[in-house]
Fold this sequence. Notes:
Radius of gyration: 45 Å
Mean pLDDT: 86
Helix content: 40-55%
Low-confidence stretches: none
Number of helices: 18
Largest sheet: 5 strands, mixed
CATH topology of the largest domain: Nucleotidyltransferase, domain 5
Structural class: alpha+beta
CATH superfamily of the largest domain: Ribonuclease H-like superfamily/Ribonuclease H
Distance between the termini: 112 Å
Number of strands: 16
Shape: elongated
Amino acid sequence: xxxxxxxxxxxxxxxxxxxxxxxxxxxxxxxxxxxxxxxxxxxxxxxxxxxxxxxxxxxxxxxxxxxxxxxxxxxxxxxxxxxxxxxxxxxxxxxxxxxxxxxxxxxxxxxxxxxxxxxxxxxxxxxxxxxxxxxxxxxxxxxxxxxxxxxxxxxxxxxxxxxxxxxxxxxxxxxxxxxxxxxxxxxxxxxxxxxxxxxxxxxxxxxxxxxxxxxxxxxxxxxxxxxxxxxxxxxxxxxxxxxxxxxxxxxxxxxxxxxxxxxxxxxxxxxxxxxxxxxxxxxxxxxxxxxxxxxxxxxxxxxxxxxxxxxxxxxxxxxxxxxxxxxxxxxxxxxxxxxxxxxxxxxxxxxxxxxxxxxxxxxxxxxxxxxxxxxxxxxxxxxxxxxxxxxxxxxxxxxxxxxxxxxxxxxxxxxxxxxxxxxxxxxxxxxxxxxxxxxxxxxxxxxxxxxxxxxxxxxxxxxxxxxxxxxxxxxxxxxxxxxxxxxxxxxxxxxxxxx
Length: 499
C-alpha cells in the first residue's frame, strides 16, 4: 500500500507533466504495476502497446509442425534445422521458446504386476566399483536374482561380468533357492540378448542351453521398460543401501560369505509385501515347493578357452602366466577355469592344475614342472658331454664303465676329462686314457699323470688345464668387480693416531 500523498503525486505527474508510467515508477522508486493500479483506480484506461516482434516469430509455424510430428526431437537439432532456414537468433533463447511450445508429455500410469508363487524371477547385473588385487584393479560386479512373488534375494559378487560368471550366478542361485522359477526376466544385456528388432529376439545360444538344462523360459523385458523388472531394480537399490554401504571385507570370498548371511538374515526378515504380518522368509518357504525341481547335475559354468604354449612351458590366461609340463610346449591346450582353479587339458587328459590368480603379471608355477625341466636339461648336458668325449677319446667309454663299477661320480669325471680335452689334442687324450684303462686306473688323476709323463718325454711342458665348474647354474653367474675407490673413501673417514 502507498500513501494518499504518493497517489496524488502519481496522478499529477501523469496528467499534468505527461510522464509515462515507466518514468513515474523509476523516479518515485516504486514498481510500475503500482503506478498502473493507481491510474486504473482513477479511471485511466491502460495503454495497449503492441509487442515488439521477435526474431523467432516467422519460424514458429515450422517449429510447431515439426514438434507435432516429432514431439521428442531435441532443441539443438531443431535449432540447426531452423538456422538452415535463416533464423539469426542465439541457441539459448531458442531453447526457451521450444520448451514453451513443446507438447507436454503425458504421465504414464502402470499396472501393478502380480505373479504366482514359483512363476517368475528377475535377473540383473549391478556394478559396485572396483577391487584392488595386487597390481590389478578388477571391476566388482554383483549378480542378483529375485523371486518375484516372495521377494527372496540371491546375491553373488564377481570380479568378472562375462558369460561364465553369468552362468555361474544362475547355477548358484538355483542351488540357493532349491529350485527354478518357470520364467526368468532379463534386461537386454548381451549375455542374454544378442540382437533385437521389435519382437524379433536373438537369444544368446549359451543362455538357451542353460534354459533347456533347467527348463525355464528366458524372457527379456521391452526396451526402456524398467518397470517390468522393478523387483530386481529395487532389490539392487536395497542391496546398495542395506548391505554394501560402509561394508568392510578382506577379499571376494569374505564378501560373498557376508552376502549369503545377509540374504538369509536381514533381507529375509523384512516385511512381506502382500501381508505385513509375514516375513519374506515365510513367503519363500511357501514358494519353494512351487519351484521347478533341479536337474541331477548342475550346468557346467567354468570358463573354457584355448591357449597356445610357445617354446617356454607357460601359457597366458587372464593377465597371468601359468606353467605346464615341459613336454607340452608348442601346442594348443584347453584351459578350464573356475573362480578358484585353473585346469589345463591336452585333449581329454588333465596335465596341470593351478590356483587361480586375480592379480596381474604373475607367474604361477608348479614346482614339479620346473624341476622336471631342470632335470631334463641336466641330463641333456651330460649326454652332450659324453657324446663329445666318446667321439674324441673312444677309450673314455670303458674308463667310465670301470669308474661306475667302483661307485665314482661319473658327472665329475666327465666334466674333468672335457676340461683336459679343451687343453690337449684329442689323440693325446685318447692315448692317455687308453693307457689308464690298461693299467686299471679309471680316474682323472691317472690320466693327467700319464699326459704329463708323455709330454715330458717329448720335451713339451705340461698342459695348462683351466679350472672348471661342475655346477651349471654357478657357471653362468657373472661376478662384477666392485671399484676399490669406495673403500679408499671409507679409509679417509677413519681418524689416524699420530705417534
